[in-house]
Structures are given as C-alpha cells and as structure tokens.
Amino acid sequence: MGRIAPLVATTALVVAAFAVALPGAAAAAPQHRARALRIADFLLATQRPSGAIPDTPGGRRVNEDSNMEYALIGLGAAYEASGHRRYLDGLARGIRWLAGREEMSGGRWRGSWFYAYSARAPFDPIPTSSGRGVKDVRGVDATSALFAYLVWLHRDLSGDPSLAHRLEPNVRAALDFVLARNRARDGFFASSWQRRDGRWRLWRFRYAADQGDVYLGLHAGSLLYGDRDYAAAADHLADRVGAAFFLRGRGRFALGTDPDGTRDRSLEGFNGIFPQGYLPWVLGPSPQGRRALGWLRTRTRGDGRVAIGHRPAYSLSAAIAGMAARGVGGRAPRRSLRWLARVPFDPADGGVTDTGRGGPKYVNVAGFSVVGLVGFLPFG
Fold first, then answer.
1. 3-class DSSP state for residue 136?
2. How far apart are CA 77 and CA 80, in angstroms?
3. Which of 27, 47, 149, 232 is the most buried (most CB within 10 A)?
4. At a CB cut-off of 8 Å and minimum separation 6, what does 64 contact?
C-alpha cells in the first residue's frame, strides 16, 4: 500500500481530513496546501504529452541539471497531500520519458543520461558547456540516482509495483553506473563526466547536495530490490556526509569538496545555499542539519524572504527552509512559507518566479516549492 490511497481523491472532506492527519501536515497551513496544488497544476500544464517537462514553460531544454526530476518529486508531494490521481499519472509519464532517454546499450555509459535534452521529438541530447573548455556533460551522479528514487516514489505512493518491476533493469543500470563510474575511494560521489579535447573526463568535485541525491537513489534501490550493495553505499553517505561537508566555524555545509577533501566555502548564486536545506531534508535529524537550519534562519528577513546581504531573495531559499525544518523536526518557517506562497507565486499560471523580483519560472523551483509548502518527506 502506498502512503495515501487513490480513493482519498473522491471526497474533498476526506482529503482535508487526511491533510491534517498526515505526518508533517502542521508544516503547511491549509492555504499553503491549496497554493501548492496550484503550483503542481502548473507543472502538469508544462508537461508535454510525451511526459517530458521542459525546464521552463515553452522552453527547448528538458532535465538540464536534473530539473525535471526535481519537478517530478513535486508531483509526488502533491499526490501525497491531495490524493488527486492526475499528479500520480504525471509522475508516471515523466518516469517513462526519462527511461526512454537512459543509455541502456552495453558499454561505459549504460545507466546514464546526458546533461540536457531537446523538448522536441526525438529528444536528442543538447551539448552543454559547464565551463571553459567543456564541450558537453553527461553521467551526472544526481541524474542517475534521482531516477531510481522516482521509481521507488511511484511504487510507494501508488501501491502498484508494476512500473518498478518493469523498470528494474533501468534502475539497476542507473545505480550501478554511479557506483562504478562516479564513486571515489572515500565513498563519496564525483559530479559528472565532461568532454574536453575530444575526451570524456571525470570531474572529481563532490557537490554536497549531490551526496543527498545519490543517497535518495541508493536507499530507494535497496528498498525496491533488497540490494545490500546499494544499502551499504547509502548508509555510508548517511553516516559520513555531515562530518565531511560541514563547516563548523560557519555553521553550514560547504558547497562541496575537492578530491583532497578541501571544502569549498563559497556562497555564489544559489548553489551554496541549497545544501543548507536539502541535506537536512534528505538525511533527517542531525547536529549539522539543525545548525544549517539555524544558519538559514539567520538569513531570513522580516517579511520571510531568505537572502544573503544584497543578493537576490531566491524562491528556492524559502522552499528549502521549509524542507530543512521538516527534515529535522524543527519549527516550520511560517514567514518564509507565507512569502513563498504570496510573492514569487504567479496566480496567472501557478508558476513560481526565480526570485521575489520576478525572473524565469523554472520547474525545479516549482517542484521544491510544492515540497516545502506541503511538508513532504522523501521517505514518508
């Protein structure tokens, strides 16, 4: 049985009662739940009949930097909060589209994806540079791992194992790829493979948040198929990420680490902020997670927006503040959730702008906004 039965969708009164009874429902006020479902409807409106969800409405790219996969987590959160079948169906369509893009032939790339795909059939990969000299990127640790998590999430929510059974070769290939191709000797995971000078080379930087993504996939794989190797690798991350990636003197997680273990302390853009909420949500209560949540709270303004100095107040910062609080069992950041549901939210289409001042409407931002607003937990 999944975490919520499809029959819940038949009666609005029953749905409302479930919203109160669900674990973590106190993290989201009723008005936030309604707004969250409106955001989930934005994701469904963006999704193509093929199952692809472009990174922005009408955009030409799909799943750049795993954007679509985060959006699909949002659809799962919306289904758990409401029981409305359309969200579960959207999740399944997205999973099937991703499975169709996975490299499943033999060879070194089996179980991996390219960094981005065209939103138009036949959905060819779009060569993408991540920096000087880089011609393309593939084999991102997070992309393969999140696919496995999404398959588990569908099985858990629906109570139907048929999709997980049919896609077992795909899930195992994805997890086996990151274990064989991206895992370092210390048990952490390098980001991706980059094409330079005509050759594919492993970029060995370990993003802190990526360790959370890989944990989701490995733990999901162990739950799906009872694989001990997946469980052991996931347990290693759960036990070691806090100590390896946390900056004690600053009270927050590093952006990531170099192969020699040197921690990157930068907070440029949003990347440095993201692990402060994402890792506590993924890994659950820990001293490091609680301190990272405290760090986010010190960056929260009176109106609820989360920002560093004069930098923009990103919508994702407010969403992950809610996720962090839910993950560690802390007090919900009600001002931040209220700001998220009112300021960057666009009632015209249900999308969420990148910042409180506007900007693009990315589907990963929408997905995380749903997760934060309804108090969804990755493993229930």
1. strand
2. 5
3. 149
4. 55, 115, 116, 126, 128
d(CA 322, CA 187): 29
**φ, ψ of residue 153 in degrees (nearest 5):** -60, -40
Query: Percent helix, strand, coil in the chain (nearest 5)?
Result: 55, 10, 35
Q: Which of 83, 87, 107 is nearest to 95 (CA)?
A: 87
Q: What is the CA angle 314-130-169, rounded to 5?
A: 95
- Evaluated on CA atoms 307, 308, 314, 317, the torsion sign reads negative
Contact 54, 363 (CB under 8 A): yes
According to DSSP, the β-strands at 206-207 and 199-203 are: unpaired
Give the separation between CA 58 and CA 119, rounded to whole angstroms: 9
pLDDT (0 to 100) of residue 109: 97
On whether the CB atoms of residues 83 and 9 are closer than 8 A, the answer is yes
User: Which residue in this structure is represented by tokens 């960094």?
Assistant: 115
Return the residue matching tokens 């009632």: 347
Token pair listed for 93? 């369509």
Q: What is the pLDDT of residue 269?
A: 63
Residues of the chain under the 50 pLDDT cut: 1-28
Q: Give the gyration radius of the chain's Cα atoms.
A: 19
B/e letters for 245-269, b = 16+ CB within 10 Å, e = fewer, are bbbeeebbbbbbbeeeeebbeebee
What one-character-per-residue DSSP string does 197-243 give? Answer: TTEEEEE--EEHHHHHHHHHHHHHHHHHH--HHHHHHHHHHHHHHHH
Whether a cis peptide bond, with omega within 30° of 0, leads into 122 is: yes
Closest CA to 305 of 255, 366, 354, 377: 354
Contact 256, 190 (CB under 8 A): no
Q: What are residue 252's DSSP bridge partners?
A: 247
pLDDT of residue 29: 52
